[in-house]
Fold this protein.
Amino acid sequence: MKRTVLIMAGGRGERFWPKSRKNRPKQFLSLTDDGKTMIQLTVDRIRQLVDIEDVYIATDRAYKALVQEQLPEIPEENILCEPVGRNTAPCVGLGAVHMAKKYGDAVMIVLPSDQLIKYNAIFLTALDDACAVAEQGDYLVTLGITPDRPETGYGYIKFLPDRPLDRAFAVERFVEKPDLETAKSYLAAEQYLWNSGMFVWKVSTILANIKRYLPETYAGLQRIREAIGTAEEQTVMERVFLGFQTVSIDYGVMEKAESIYTILGSFGWDDVGSWPAVERLQTSNEFGNVVNGNAVTVDTWRTVIQGGEKLIAAVGLEDMIVVDTPDALLICKKEHAGDIRKVLENLRICNCTEYL
Amino acid sequence: MKRTVLIMAGGRGERFWPKSRKNRPKQFLSLTDDGKTMIQLTVDRIRQLVDIEDVYIATDRAYKALVQEQLPEIPEENILCEPVGRNTAPCVGLGAVHMAKKYGDAVMIVLPSDQLIKYNAIFLTALDDACAVAEQGDYLVTLGITPDRPETGYGYIKFLPDRPLDRAFAVERFVEKPDLETAKSYLAAEQYLWNSGMFVWKVSTILANIKRYLPETYAGLQRIREAIGTAEEQTVMERVFLGFQTVSIDYGVMEKAESIYTILGSFGWDDVGSWPAVERLQTSNEFGNVVNGNAVTVDTWRTVIQGGEKLIAAVGLEDMIVVDTPDALLICKKEHAGDIRKVLENLRICNCTEYL
């Protein structure tokens, strides 16, 4: 069966402010040493598995030019522009109806555009295994990540080791982000995986599940499907998307559906959720500092500095994030990285939209 | 007797990097809310006491243009340019020989150019009292500051409460910067004052003391005195200053001299020794933050932010100093403020002189 990929690239990535902005969110930034952006790396990764004309990018209308600039090899008709973001369920559905219209049916690999994977050969094997399962029937297959720390920032997948299907295992349930004690027990139990947000299924299977669990969304998707390629397409997209319920594919479908299977992945996955994660991705010096740009550090430890030409002098810092851009500077204690959104809230309140 | 003022303005003020630079040290910066520079405030302060044509500025040759720009009312011949810095003893001596040549003798008030005083009327009264003592005989009068905290960053003056002279008291000795325990005992003893570096004496008195305790410096000063106003002045200044021993007036004269008296000053003196001192000078908000420029603070406490147009977002900071300038940014834990000089050392080593 034809294999396709849908890359979801509509996120705003506020947690990487001030490097990420409303006009250039995280997936369009380079956060690694190699200079490629997150979405470029995502496409590079699956080139061996899928033809480029079978790769779809779902993104916000505002980012179409960025996608074309960074991924000129993607056919324009494969760039699916959402008039407004409604979370991942409408996004996945949009990809599915486009693929259904073009291919009838296909195995559809759904990938976020802003994650990193260290061991690509292992990742491709895992995707291949997931495709093999998905092809066999109406299964929803997720890539679960074998945890190596009691992470409280991710949702988990509980699987059943005694119910394998090929190289996958049946999923018992999805669980919310745990507290530290619970996360430790999950790690010890060896029956929990991180929910990576990567999925594999047939187009027909996911559409059937959307029809069952999100019937209104399904109805909207059908209207879009009929309009694809017609003069009405833009108008219908606009009207339907504005009416869509905002709901994730996890909450809207996966947590309710049956016949879910998971592939156990150990391929150096990182969702690069916020600035402190950059430490895991880039080379740190003997003081644990990750420094990009023109910087002098004195008695500074475990600190991430992302600058440019301006000289940044850090004296006596510990566990900090410093991000300098031409018009905005962030200085943040690592453990407060979650509060960066409060900066953006403040900026919205004072109508300083130029910094968003 | 004629009263004159010598303002010493040759310091480099590295502790205020990156706002202070080799080309614009601390005394030429504004660190207060009112926008005036330190040296402008110093001159403003004594205008009621002394005619402007009797105010002398001793500075490094490199800063002459800055002095003229910031203090256009000072006669050019009163700007005494040192070819090279040799600490305060040669500087005071240079002022003294100029005044001796012009006035024969005078009461000479010596003031640093980079201190702040909150209650100027009280300060002027103290200076007036000091002048009255100095006029009476060959006394070296210092302004001692009544301490209000066990400060370890200043030298102290021990005075003798039972040996008054008018409104002054005899000084028993000068003591070096103490450790915290010693500083606490000084505060409790009520017989110790902070050494402010402000002095009052007759020109003839200080020259006699330099002759006695620093005879080589005195000899050089005599050569300068003879050359003042001649075609040779520049050449002589250059040759003599290069040959001067580098020595402070405190170490070279005051710690050895006799007949030293001190006036007890309580006029809101602050030497603004380093960035953390800015907190004492400017209005802080309810979180103890002192913020200048365009900043958003989230969960940030007791932090000094000195910025400009660039947006500075501070998240989860405590007891930090953030100073942003167009080409260099400092982020420093307050207790490490003394290590700012290490940044400058690093910059010298890597030959990044544009930032010094």
Observations:
- Chain A has eleven helices and 17 strands.
- Chain A has two domains: 3-270, 278-355.
- Residues 278-355 of chain A form one domain.
- The radius of gyration of chain A is 21 Å.
